[in-house]
Amino acid sequence: MLRVVLITGISGSGKSVALRMLEDTGYTCIDNLPVRFLSEFISSARDENLERVAIAIDVRSPGELAELPDVVTALRAMGTSLRVIFLDANTQTLVQRYSESRRRHPLTDRLSRGGQAPTLLDAISLERDLLAPLREQEHVIDTSGLTPGQLRSWIADLIQDDRPPLVLTFESFAYKRGVPNDADLVFDARCLPNPYYDRNLRPLTGRDEPVATWLASFDVVGQMIDDITGYLRRWLPQYTQDTRNYLTVAVGCTGGQHRSVYVVEQLAKRFADHDPLLIRHRAQLPDEHT
Fold it and tell me: In this structure, how many other beta carbons lie within 10 angstroms of the beta carbon of residue 221?
């Protein structure tokens, strides 16, 4: 059976990294495909007995981008195994990436037709408006602060075969870097005791046994984990019935290294019977590679 991965999202959010990763894992990839050719390309891939294809579509593509959600819906209705991954990033990150790469935003020429040179912020704002309908329907990965290695790893997790309707993801993050855009539910662990102030624990993470033992000694930590667990046990069936494919539960602390990491790891243990279950840590922890 042909499996299709569609990569889309905001320009500068990492689509090239994602597409190269898929190519390296055996996908036949095509970049910047016009929307009007999507159905035709998938039909051709099926005729050629291809098993896995990946397609990148964004505002560079000619044609009416507004038609893409309806095209995706129609393809799925015809039985196409189609996974859509929407990559996003906050505006500050996008501006920094454009500054470092010195590339022009792909909407610059379109905006220039009005006779006034657009700013980068104007182009980013227009792009968000154009892609908003698709963003609301599909799985979002906020790539702000992610290394290419982290993004490749997260994409690899998502494209595993035979996933049931809802992928449950627990994600830790640092409030000092902002709340991730891909979060569906957000919980704040900054009120919990902080291992950072113990010099012996400071260089460690919430996955290290000394930090875990220290946090587990506080009743309030266990109470927060119990409360989040109870909430999810109560409402997870409702999210599933809402025909969601993904639910991302984000837990934040100041630095994203100790408390949020520990809480996420403990929640993952509580929900180990849910398959598939993903664990993400936005902070670059010591055993994560770029």
Answer: 19
pLDDT band at 200 (very low <50, low <70, confident <90, very high): very high
In Å, how far are 6, 103, 188, 250 from 137, measured between CA atoms? 13, 29, 26, 19
CA angle 186, 121, 252 (to 5 degrees): 15
Q: What is the pLDDT of residues 112-168, one digit of tens each?
A: 765 677 788 988 998 888 888 778 777 899 999 888 888 988 888 888 754 456 889
* Amino acid occupying residue 114: G
DSSP tag of 250: E
Put residue 118 in one of left, alpha, beta given phi > 0 → left and psi -120 to 50 → alpha: beta
The rounded distance, in Å, linking the Cα atoms of 105 and 96 is 13
Count of alpha carbons within 13 angstroms of residue 40, beta-carbon side = 5
- The separation between CA 219 and the C-alpha centre of its own chain, rounded to angstroms, equals 32
Neighbouring residues of 141: CB distance < 8 A, sequence distance ≥ 6: 85, 86, 87, 88, 151, 154, 155, 182
**Whole-number pLDDT of residue 129:** 87
Q: Is the pTM of this model over 0.70?
A: no
Say how far residue 31 (Cα) sits from the centre of its chain: 20
pLDDT in tens, 61-70: 655 677 888 8
Task: Provide the sign of the torsion angle of the four alpha carbons 250, 59, 72, 157, taken in this order.
Answer: negative
Contact 92, 181 (CB under 8 A): no
